[in-house]
Write a structure and sequence with these properties.
Length: about 600
């Protein structure tokens, strides 16, 4: 995934583009660049590495101009280097393009363009777009862009400027997000609202297959084919400070710390005053459709997939219908059988994950009703769903998903209660009991955040180990996978999540004095089984890091470390446990001086398959 920003107005573009790119850096950060228009010519500055490297270059060689494009890259075609960085230009350097997505047929296009005499400077797919616009340009930039787009197969969001049109920016959305920011005497395009929120809260979300032709005082939206489109602006109700670190050393720690507020806000907005019912104003799927659902399948990737696995336990417990969970990238290749009256739930923080979008399309083709649990407003997933439930976790900038995960779990609990009521699977009494227990979650999380000394001790003493195991059972088995993923993706230490009962079927051979094992042993119906597994590990000199429930003294005899969570209904224990796992990963990564918010090789959302 990459980040795009465009500006046209009365201010110098360079500082606005740079500031916007910093807000988009979480989308990709292996190279970056900007282009501006001044005195009828396009000037480009681009550099390998993060925005800071580009800033250094611009300090030495600044760009003037009140119209420009910016881009921060997560490489798909062409290694991360200066020449492959965007913006890309045509043969004469008159047309500059920034792109998020993939040109699937770029090789054949490039070959044809080279045969026609075009000269290329990069190994990217994007550069063909600049040369296509040049090829079709007669004396109308808009027409040339439309003609060029017709040649392209793939997904893209584009920004285009031309030396011949010093007062125009063209933006296109086709399966990759692009928003328009409406200012006073200035306008913006961007991959997401965080890049322009400092300047305007009036945002238009372009739909797929739409194009904007923008001057500083006017915005014209059409389909890529040219048909005019009317799109109203949305007033965004959060401000840029929510997308800043606000004094925290990393976005990830800030977002971990936001979880009590996020959970509280979800409960306040989704649970009735009397704590006896749940509602989702944006759901759109009619109750008579939901009450007929007989099968649920969940598709998601990464952390969202772990939320989906937890969702299986939650939904089967409260709704009493079968739930299947698939990694999105596997779902559509296994020829899934969804059964009749099927509901497919897609879970995605970004709402742009290509594998999950592809799975939703397959489920739709198979006749399922599609419900999405998603965080980013107006994302592509929301456009392809029959119903949406926003997690409203606010912008999640850290690449490692934290508050979005616990928000997804919250929504799954509430949706299961809602469905359980519709299907008559839970009594009103049970609903009131569950909802009042959920009300305790914000302070349970807050209590964990207030006392991190054991976790800090674990990170201090175990951060240099080469491999970790994470064990869980029942509803906390998905958390074992999630804890391992968190550690892997930000500390680069190998870790494996396992169903604890599976240890004796092989993995126990790994246990020795250098193997830390995080054991999720909170009060539960499987507690005794879990403590037996812990003793098996301890008796083989494994290092046991237990997550247990306050008051459990017994666990201390078999553990090197015990991280306590306050007492909570087993059903809801995944949320406080997740917070402990996030903190373990965070502090170990920090002890290893890792780039916690932007780990190597990763991007916040994977918009390619
Ligand atoms: C989680 O920490 C990772 N960043 C990654 O696994 C992520 O959960 C996955 O790519 C899915 O992203 P999505 O929720 O935006 O679809």
């Amino acid at each position: 995934m990459c980040g795009i920003i465009g500006y046209i107005g009365n201010e110098q573009a360079q500082p606005i583009l740079l500031e916007g790119l910093k807000q988009l850096e979480y989308r990709g950060y292996d190279s970056a660049g900007i282009a501006t228009l001044i005195k009828g010519s396009v000037s480009v500055r681009k550099e390998k590495g993060k925005i800071a490297a580009l800033e250094k270059l611009l300090d030495k060689k600044p760009l003037k101009g009140t119209i420009g494009l910016g881009h921060t890259r997560w490489a798909t075609h062409g290694i991360p280097n200066q020449s492959n960085a965007h913006p890309h230009v045509d043969c004469h350097g008159d047309i500059a393009v920034v792109h998020n997505g993939i040109v699937e047929n770029y090789e054949e296009l490039k070959e044809k363009l080279m045969q026609e005499g075009h000269r290329f400077n990069s190994a990217t797919d994007t550069e063909v777009i600049a040369h296509l616009i040049e090829k079709f340009y007669k004396d109308d930039l808009e027409a040339a862009v439309r003609a060029a787009i017709r040649e392209i197969k793939g997904s893209f969001a584009l920004g285009v400027i031309s030396a011949k049109y010093p007062d125009t920016i063209i933006g296109i959305r086709y399966a990759s997000p692009l928003v328009i920011g409406l200012g006073k005497g200035e306008n913006f395009i961007a991959s997401d609202i965080t890049a322009v929120l400092k300047h305007t809260k009036d945002i238009i979300f372009l739909e797929d297959n739409e194009m904007v032709i923008m001057n500083k005082d006017s915005v014209k939206i059409t389909t890529i084919g040219g048909r005019p489109v009317q799109r109203d602006a949305v007033k965004i109700n959060w401000d840029i400070s929510q997308a800043q670190k606000s004094g925290y050393p990393h976005f990830m720690l800030k977002e971990i710390a936001e979880q009590p507020t996020v959970v509280e806000s979800i409960l306040n907005h989704r649970v009735s005053q009397g704590k006896e019912s749940v509602y989702f104003e944006e759901l759109k799927i009619q109750e008579d459709v939901l009450s007929k659902i007989e099968n649920i399948n969940i598709v998601a990737c990464g952390t969202a997939y772990h939320a989906g696995l937890c969702g299986k336990y939650i939904l089967e417990e409260l709704v009493k219908i079968p739930v299947a969970v698939d990694v999105s990238s596997e779902f559509r290749y296994r020829n899934p059988i969804l059964g009749k009256n099927a509901l497919t739930i897609s879970i995605s923080q970004s709402g742009e994950t290509a594998d999950t979008l592809a799975s939703m399309r397959e489920a739709k083709r198979l006749g399922a009703t599609i419900l999405s649990i998603v965080n980013v407003l107006g994302s592509t997933v929301t456009r392809e769903s029959d119903g949406i439930i926003y997690t409203h976790a606010g912008p999640e900038i850290g690449v490692a998903s934290t508050k979005a995960y616990t928000a997804q779990l919250c929504i799954l609990y509430l949706f299961a209660i809602y469905m359980g009521m519709l299907k008559g699977a839970v009594s009103q009494q049970k609903v009131k009991e569950l909802l009042s227990q959920m009300q305790q979650l914000p302070q349970i999380i807050a209590k964990l955040l207030a006392d991190q000394k054991v976790i800090l001790k674990v990170s201090k003493e175990q951060h240099n180990k080469k491999c970790f195991l994470y064990l869980g059972r029942n509803i906390n088995f998905p958390n074992a996978l999630e804890g391992a993923l968190k550690l892997k993706e930000i500390s680069y230490i190998h870790a494996e999540g396992y169903a604890s009962g599976e240890m004796k079927h092989g993995p126990i051979a790994l246990i020795d004095k250098d193997m830390p094992v995080v054991c999720i042993a909170t009060a539960s119906s499987v507690y005794d089984k879990m403590t037996s597994n812990i003793q098996e590990i301890k008796s083989r000199s494994g290092i046991v890091i237990s997550i247990a429930t306050e008051g459990d003294e017994r666990i201390k005899h078999h553990s090197d470390y015990v991280i306590y969570i306050p007492p909570v209904n087993e059903l809801f224990s995944p949320i406080p446990v997740a917070v402990c796992l996030q903190l373990i990963a965070y502090y170990i990564a920090v002890k290893n001086n890792r780039d916690v918010d932007q780990p190597r090789n990763l991007a916040k959302s994977v918009t390619v398959e």
